[in-house]
Design brief:
The structure is a homodimer of 314-residue chains. Chain A is of the alpha/beta class. Chain A is built from eleven helices and 13 strands. In chain A, the strands form two sheets. The first copy, chain A, has a nine-stranded mixed sheet with strand order 5-4-1-8-9-10-11-12-13, with helices on both faces. Chain A has a four-stranded mixed sheet with strand order 3-2-6-7. The first copy, chain A, is globular and about 50 Å long. The first copy, chain A, starts with 12 loop residues before the first strand and ends with a helix. The mean pLDDT of chain A is 96. The interface between A and B is medium-sized, with 31 and 31 residues.
């Protein structure tokens, strides 16, 4: 794909998170040593909408082809540390029958074990920031480095996952006080709030800090809770379901990318961003790794966005 | 509530199914000897939109207050047999924690055991018919009685449940060849088709006969598959969840009632009908029995319909 061009008004987006080498088994197929990690999926997704900066770490073994893939999307990899002393974060997992949960087979943190996200100085004023689901202490450390100037305060999206809810809840609670938009899946929102009704759970989450909440429900779509109103959207009806890995990460990446492109966090903009995020994440599940996400192109994304509009209008 | 008035163009709807006395326990509360049965929920729901005829059976013990409730909705109960020799169908059940499934505690079929739905002669030409989830052989028996005149062929909606998929599949398959619209929940569609992807399952169901499929996903909304297009709608975001009994029945009843009122089965009409069905069924879960469904009134239903439109538009 050609390096994307963005509208003149588009602001940059910063993605911080894991970059990994994955081996994934599903009930139907297997793919080994593929590009993975939340920040890989999220940065490619964001790059469809806005200039995208990536902060993460990889080892000396990180394949040049993977780096080339990110650069082809125009992603600024100045913040991607390459630690020559170690190997890239490696994860392998196996999805259970009917994709009802997955089991981790191997985690080798490698260079990720001592990773501390350090922002290049020209990243510190990035106006739209996504903090992937790394340890909340590290997410907080990123926020510490962002500009404190009131008129340039960045808009911050954070993701998390169940491990941090169980093990580092105080850090997570501190984080929530500092972010604008919290993206969480339905099970995790139940775990964190003790509330199964998503509307009530979202109210509790907003009391913990973020003024905007997105609850993802996988194949059942997602819900947006914004001070100016709520929004619900179904999943894009995928018929070729290969591997859900990275769906949530590409969802969040598209979300922050679209907001950066629009340079707005209004309710109408957030609704469109959620619809684009839905379209983009539907691509991710249609292949292993970022293959389909990366290969599809903006035109297919726009088609799916319009299809979602047609699918939901009455 | 006053007896409803309908648009001059509205056609009548016929509802066939169980009328029961229920005792329901949820994790939070219990309510005994209340009006239940698919046809009770469905006929009250349909009555908000179109003149509604009810075919079912009750025993001599059926409380006059329950009959009065149905009549207050203007429901034509000429087809409701009262069997003086027996007692009304009685069901009691208990929902499990978090409403994840329910257990039947008691079933006393009573007069329902020998029930054979016989249509009064003036019902046989009813243009819109809902067959509640009674035995497929009885659903077929109703169709046998409907007018065969080509230009007056009724539009038939059928519901079913997992027991009939397990025990009387040949009858169910015969039924499916004879109905226009099949309403089924997601688990049952998986059971019947062996396919978990709802879009693919709907394709398989359409090959079995019905040209229109609705797949209900409970709190995750519902999906419409029509020859002219597909439609997805989230559930109405209820915050006062009391008892899900009858939600699916009132959904189907509102659906057939709206189609009868519009005298159309076009794709745009079906989408609106699904949205109204979503609004109506959200009322059902807000109380035990038909209390909230019956008490809410058309104005609240219209409000929820508009709220669903606002919730889903981007």
């Amino acid at each position: 794909m050609p390096t994307p061009t963005y509208p003149r008004t588009a602001r940059p987006a910063l993605i911080v998170g894991s970059v990994a080498i994955d081996s994934v088994a599903t009930p139907f197929a297997q793919s080994d040593n593929i590009l993975g990690g939340a920040a890989s999926y999220a940065s490619i997704a964001a790059s469809y909408f806005a200039p995208t900066r990536l902060v993460g770490v990889v080892g000396a073994d990180f394949p040049a082809a993977f780096l080339k893939r990110l650069k082809k999307h125009g992603i600024d990899t100045q913040g991607l540390q390459i630690d020559p002393a170690g190997k890239t974060f490696y994860w392998s997992g196996r999805y259970r029958e009917n994709f009802e949960g997955r089991d981790t087979l191997t985690i080798q943190l490698n260079v990720f074990d001592k990773f501390s996200p350090e922002l290049p100085s020209n990243y510190k004023g990035t106006p739209f920031v996504m903090l992937g689901a790394i340890q909340p202490a590290l997410q907080n450390h990123v926020i510490d480095q962002l500009t404190k100037e009131k008129q340039h305060k960045p808009f911050i999206l954070a993701d998390t996952f169940d491990l941090w809810i169980h093990t580092t809840r105080p850090d997570l609670e501190r984080l929530l006080k500092r972010v604008d938009l919290f993206v969480i899946n339905e099970e995790e929102s139940q775990l964190l709030t003790g509330e199964r009704n998503p509307a009530i759970a979202a109210g509790k989450l907003r009391k913990m800090g973020p003024r905007i909440i997105v609850i993802k429900k996988g194949g059942h779509g997602s819900l947006l809770f914004h001070p100016d109103g709520n929004f619900a959207i179904p999943a894009y009806p995928v018929t070729k379901f290969i591997d859900p890995t990275g769906a949530g990460d590409s969802y969040a990446g598209a979300l922050i990318g679209y907001l950066a492109a629009a340079n707005s966090t209004s309710f109408p903009t957030l609704k469109k961003a959620v619809a684009y995020a839905t379209a983009v994440s539907s691509l991710t599940v249609e292949s292993f790794s970022v293959d389909r996400l990366s290969g599809a192109g903006r035109k297919v994304i726009d088609q799916r966005y319009r299809a979602l509009s047609a699918l939901t209008r009455f």
